Amino acid sequence: METNICIAGFGGQGVMTIGKFLAQAVTDSTELNTVFFPTYGAEQRGGTANCFVVIADGEVGTPKADFMDDLIVLNNPSLNKFIDTLKPGGNLFINDTIVTDEIKRDDINIIRVPGTEKALELGNGKVLNVIMLGAYIGYTEVFPVDVMWSTIEHKLAKKASLLPLNKAAFDLGLEYGRKNK
Fold it and tell me: Which terminus has fewer CB within 10 Å in the chain: N or C?
């Protein structure tokens, strides 16, 4: 088993955080191998930022595959840049509050999550990434929910006041992921 995931969006949307949370959950709570491969640079200033996570039960040969099993996109430029890397039958998770470009593929599963809208309704646009991560976990069940939340909780321990908001965002994302199965 090997799962290749690409997460992409604008710098500042929490793209790297999603990737780090996924990789950390694998490392801390499973016997699986993982690689987290971020792309930094001018992307941090409003361009497209992306990272790749590979989860495998064997050795990971490369940190970035040519084709993805799962793609999480938070903006239109990322959709357009990475849509052709998604394997037929792959899962496309889109922040459909702002991803409005037409998806011209009918050979993939599309999971639409109004991430930005729901984050703003929760009172903080910065939890968009946690909503999208929850949707990913709820749909794919790549890890048990408690494992993923435990990782988030651990990583945010120094910001304990933000835990209730992030828990609400994660649970909301889970709900979207599960209902799109």
Answer: N
